[in-house]
Design goal:
By secondary structure, the protein is an all-alpha fold. The chain has eight helices and no strands. Helix 4 (51-77) runs antiparallel to helix 7.
Length: 195
């Protein structure tokens, strides 16, 4: 929901940048690697209780995640094809980033381990279910009511206020709401229309 506003702002700010990066040969996988590297930085700084640095790297993780999508759209608009493994690599880098950040928070003991594992588990289940549905081509998956951009906003906002546990609770709730939405859409897609 809020992520749409940030995405639209990003589209406005970067509308000239991402096509230029694509023309210079920057590939989406390069942004995925930068995203994972910034997540490792964020996780490390959460672990070492350097919260400002952790938030800066978390913000960079969000920027690289956005740039990955922008470059993909720019390349697709000029007819460039991707490897069939591109979606898998993208999902793996996103989930690895989430796991590393949450584990940094758990290992640094700034959040309870059970809340960290809940955030990791719900994030993985939401994404894996969505990818399974897309892989099986059961139906066109709509964007979740709350997507990754919303989770970034929650993490950045509440962690900057020192409310780490609350941030993970809200992220977990958003993941569960997204999963319920996807399950509802899945059930409606597989049931006969006459019911």
């Amino acid at each position: 929901m809020l992520g749409n506003y940030c995405r639209n702002l990003g589209n406005y700010i970067c509308r000239g940048l991402t096509p230029r990066l694509a023309r210079f040969g920057i590939q989406p996988w390069m942004m995925n690697l930068c995203s994972v590297a910034s997540a490792v930085g964020s996780g490390y700084f959460f672990f070492s209780h350097n919260i400002l640095s952790a938030l800066i790297f978390l913000f960079l993780n969000a920027v690289f995640d956005y740039m990955d999508g922008g470059i993909s759209r720019a390349l697709l608009s000029v007819g460039k094809a991707f490897s069939r493994y591109r979606p898998l690599f993208h999902v793996l880098s996103d989930k690895l980033s989430d796991v590393v950040i949450f584990w940094g928070m758990i290992a640094g003991k700034i959040v309870r381990w059970d809340l960290g594992l809940l955030a990791i588990t719900t994030s993985l289940i939401l994404t894996l279910f969505g990818r399974w549905v897309q892989h099986k081509r059961l139906f066109n998956l709509e964007r979740s009511l709350f997507d990754r951009a919303d989770r970034f906003i929650v993490l950045l906002l509440f962690c900057s206020l020192g409310r780490f546990q609350l941030a993970l609770i809200i992220v977990s709730i958003l993941n569960i709401v997204g999963l319920i939405q996807r399950l509802y859409t899945f059930i409606r897609a597989i049931l006969p229309k006459s019911l």
